[in-house]
Specification:
single chain, alpha+beta, five-stranded mixed beta sheet, four-stranded antiparallel beta sheet, 15 helices, disordered C terminus, DNA-binding
Length: 393
DNA sequence: TCTGGGGTCCTAGGACCC
DNA sequence: TCTGGGGTCCTAGGACCC
């Protein structure tokens, strides 16, 4: 039997901003972009008292609270705090840590639990340490597996510590709405409610197995087991490389202006290629995604035969995907995503070979518009790589 | 004649998380 | 005044191979 805790920093971005500017401390603040199309990324508890939540459009939040302070995000700062928070736990307690996201982690404390140091004491010490060293509040869930630990950290915020042991499941888990259940999102919750399943206890009920099987995908059994207190207690300690790298942006106003869209594609592609190289990865699947003014999303992707990390090839493929599919479409959002990533120790081609045009606008335009956008297709991209390989011989 | 079955890869879309 | 952006994982259908 393992002891797993889940640590979740409360209103992470907003709290970090409060540390930078103590004036914010007693005011309702949100971290958000400042354009008319931005949404709330994080709200402090004063703002939440006005009914403001993450993902709420900023204009709506301002309507709810006239004195709302809108702070633009500082992601590098959040990254620094995130690393500090993980490092603190690993230095002072254990490095059996699975990083969940920028503001949360699972910790397997099985090896450090003993008669004197019970799980609840350890959780209390961690909470106190993070407050003392970083000035941040966190909520902690304690259980025998990851699912229950995370449900526990959600149970009481801010500064909560909640155990969900096996015998506490009927009282702490089953009465909750299925809206609170991890991995049951809005789509599944709406569907289940239509069939009379409202509480986590209903998912746990053996009599509902048939309904669950019919309504949910083949993961229904995992949900059933979670609701009954089962779930994985194995942490993933590996810091693996990303499976995809994407960048997208909503236009300030919907647009079908080619120059504006092209500039955005260039910017987004530069950004994803920079990240690709930073991680020393290569891609062979390049995707373009757009959102139209009616909020419909469309994806177009192309998988080529070789792994590449070359800007000119990638932008050529992105431009081709755009021109073949959306050149006459009014767009709300556009995004570029690279996937099927491998570490570039398998690199066969010098990534610099085709980078002559990078940062050279005149050449870039010539290549992207006249040649690449028109001529790059799967075969062309392949040919370029073949030529590159020949040159290297 | 008129058509199997298994496997893999690609594309597109969607659910879910923060 | 209308609704972000970063991800992961899964599925279904079609192409293609044996």
């Amino acid at each position: 039997m393992k002891y797993i805790i889940h640590v979740d920093i409360n209103s992470f971005f907003a709290s970090v901003e409060e540390l930078q500017n103590p004036n914010y401390k007693n005011k309702p603040i949100v971290v958000s972009g400042y354009t008319k199309r931005s949404v709330v990324a994080s709200a402090n508890y004063i703002a939440r008292n006005y009914g403001i939540n993450a993902a709420m459009p900023i204009f709506m939040a301002k309507n709810l609270c006239r004195s709302l302070v809108v702070v633009t995000p500082h992601f590098n700062l959040y990254e620094e705090y995130s690393e500090k928070f993980i490092r603190l736990i690993s230095e002072k307690f254990t490095n059996n840590i699975e990083i969940g996201s920028i503001d949360e982690c699972y910790v397997d404390i099985t090896n450090i639990v003993n008669k004197k140091n019970q799980p609840i004491n350890i959780a209390y010490q961690i909470q106190k340490m993070i407050k003392a060293k970083l000035g941040l509040n966190c909520s902690i869930g304690i259980a025998n597996n990851k699912f229950l630990a995370k449900m526990g950290s959600d149970y009481k915020k801010p500064l909560g510590i909640t155990t969900i042991w096996k015998n506490e499941i009927p009282n702490k888990l089953w009465p909750q709405s299925i809206d609170n259940m991890l991995w049951i999102g809005k789509a599944s919750a709406d569907l289940l409610k239509k069939h009379g399943i409202y509480r986590i206890g209903d998912i746990a009920n053996e009599k509902n197995k048939k309904v669950l099987e019919k309504l949910l995908d083949k993961n229904w059994l995992v949900h059933y087991q979670h609701a009954n207190g089962g779930g994985s207690d194995t942490l993933d300690y590996s810091k693996s490389f990303p499976k995809s790298i994407g960048n997208s942006e909503t236009f300030l106003n919907d647009t079908c202006d080619f120059d504006e869209i092209k500039d955005k594609i260039v910017e987004l592609t530069h950004s994803v290629v920079r990240q690709l190289k930073y991680h020393r990865l290569q891609t062979k699947t390049i995707s373009l995604k757009v959102k139209t003014p009616d909020f419909k999303q469309y994806n177009k992707s192309l998988t080529i035969e070789h792994y590449i990390d070359n800007y000119n090839l990638i932008i050529g493929i992105v431009m081709r995907l755009f021109q073949e599919n959306f050149s006459q479409t009014t767009l709300r959002l556009i995004g570029v995503t690279l996937s099927s990533l491998v570490q570039n120790k398998e690199l066969k081609i010098s990534s610099e070979l085709f980078d002559d045009y990078r940062n050279n606008d005149e050449n870039f335009n010539k290549v992207s518009e006249r040649e690449i956008a028109e001529k790059i297709n799967k075969k062309f991209a392949k040919d370029i790589i073949t030529i590159a390989e020949d040159k290297l011989k």
